[in-house]
Amino acid sequence: MTCRLVPSLLRRNIHNICRQVRHLNINPKVGIIGVPSCKGQSRVGVEHGPKALREAGLITKLQEQGAIVQDYGDMNFTWFEDEAYQKVHNVKNIGTSTKRISEKVQEVMKDGNIAMTLGGDHSLSIGTIYGHAQMEPNTCLVWVDAHADINTPLTSPSGNIHGMALSFLVHELKDYMPKVPHFEWVKPCISAKSIAYIGLRDLDPGELWIVRNLGISCFTMHEVDRYGIDMVLRMSMKAINPYDDRPVHLSFDIDSLDPRSSPSTGTEEQYHNSLHSNQGVISSNQRTVTVADLPETDNITVHGGLSLREGIFIAEEIASTGLLTAVDLVEVNPDIGTQADQDLTVFAGTEVIRACFGKKREGNIPPGYQMPMP
Question: Distance between CA 189 and CA 194 in Å, rounded?
């Protein structure tokens, strides 16, 4: 028994040492890809998310905290007058655009960068995850979202592809997927056991069936409330990356956060139904928004989403493994809500991204800083 345990223990010790060494990398190489697309859902505005994040100074802030940033700009797409296939909307637009996104992610990673994709709606993850898997087939996925986005075309109530993204990618769903035109290029590339959901709070019946029957690691807001975000993240990573040796893809939907922290996302109906309370928050066009500007919130108010602190914690902890090689930040919609709502949502998005690439809440030492001598 002891002899059989030695290789396993040795491997764990080596991985722990490697993890500590990776922590020393304070200058991550980041490749920024903007994906101004709204075709995976029914409301316009989310295509302006990449521009809003850039105009909030995202790239400068990343550079100031030590990241080496290569900006690949916003992708340009040719949109078609698209018809639905059965009840699935915009199949040609999404099929062709996500293929190009996949190729762009591979280009960014070949250049030695972590692929940071700014959305845009969550359908873009068909391309980002597929592209990532072509470069690193052993990738595991942390999906932070209010929704599972794993409906098949046959279970989707809406027909919007942003709610089906993962069904095109999961090996175990191959037999449940019809052949959708313009998606012939994408093949299943990730197993159900390699996915961990965090923060779910709104699943459709078909999604519940898939999650339970495929054994996908799923930590809803109930588990976040019960165990705390630290334990939830530990259990998630143990489930999908027990030896701390697999590349990690973080796909972060801003609607995973409580509407008090990210009101400008989703649909106009969801926005009005959120009944958020942002009184006293000053717009960032008057002064810089900070965490102190956020209203008091917890995990059970309004729709019961993650707090911004919890979202930042997830990003910080995954970044600290040194295994993060691709990130999506999606569903920021600067056309929804008041100016203060939009500023808060963009601020939340930039803070999560910055946490992915080395921002410390105690502060960062600027690149090239030298301690003054008397």
Answer: 10
Cα of 133 vs its chain's centroid, Å: 16
What gap in Å lies between CA 164 and CA 41, rounded to an integer?
11
Phi, psi of 304 (to 5 degrees): 70, 40
Cβ(273)–Cβ(335) under 8 Å? no
Structure tokens at 119: 């959305």
- Write out the E strands in 194-323: 195-200, 217-220, 248-253
pLDDT of residue 83: 81
In the block, tokens 């928004």 appear at 289
Give dist(CA 278, CA 120) in Å, integer: 24
In this prediction, residue 249 carries a pLDDT of: 98
Note whether 113 and 29 are within 8 A (CB). Answer: yes
Q: Which stretches of the chain drop beneath a pLDDT of 50?
A: 1-6, 9, 19-24, 268-269, 275-302
Q: What are the beta bridge partners of residue 252?
A: 144, 329
Cα atoms in the 13 Å half-sphere on the side-chain side of 266: 21
R_g (Cα) of the chain, nearest Å: 20
pTM: 0.87
